[in-house]
Amino acid sequence: MSDRGFCFLFSCIVILASLGAAGWLVATGQAGTVDGLFLLLTSLLVAAAFGLYVMFMIRRAMEPMEAPAPKAAKAASPAQPKAAPLVPAEKAE
Questions:
Q1: Which of 51, 8, 28 has the alpha carbon at shortest distance from 43?
Q2: What is the pLDDT of residue 47?
Q3: Structural domain boundaries of the chain?
């Protein structure tokens, strides 16, 4: 499996774990305390960050592949003349 596949699976696992932790905090009533609220917000923030990364990966994978430019056409074209300098050289007297 490629590294993109591992990153995708790891991101999905982290999203599920973060949402599970947030659900557990709400279900047990720990989200009512100040510490629990910060832990809830942190787990939701981690889930959102990894969710955005997964959305980026999916959108990137759905883009069409660009065809490489043919190199034979470049090799067959004649050499272009060298461009003149923008500032003429000064003559030393």
A1: 51
A2: 97
A3: 3-64
What is the per-residue pLDDT across 34-52, written as a single tens digit (0 to 9) for each?
999 999 999 999 999 999 9
Q: Provide the pLDDT for residue 22.
A: 96
Residue type at position 73: A
Q: Can you read off the two tokens belonging to residue 1?
A: 């499996």
d(CA 52, CA 74): 41
Q: Give, in order, the Cα–Cα distances in Å from 60 to each of 14, 31, 53.
A: 20, 36, 10
Question: Which pLDDT does position 61 carry in this prediction?
Answer: 87
Measured from the Cβ of residue 53, the count of other Cβ atoms closer than 10 Å reads 15
Tokens of 29: 């009533």
Tokens found for residue 84: 């003149």
Q: Where are the alpha helices (DSSP H) in the chain?
A: 3-28, 34-62, 71-76
Cα 26 to chain centroid, rounded? 31
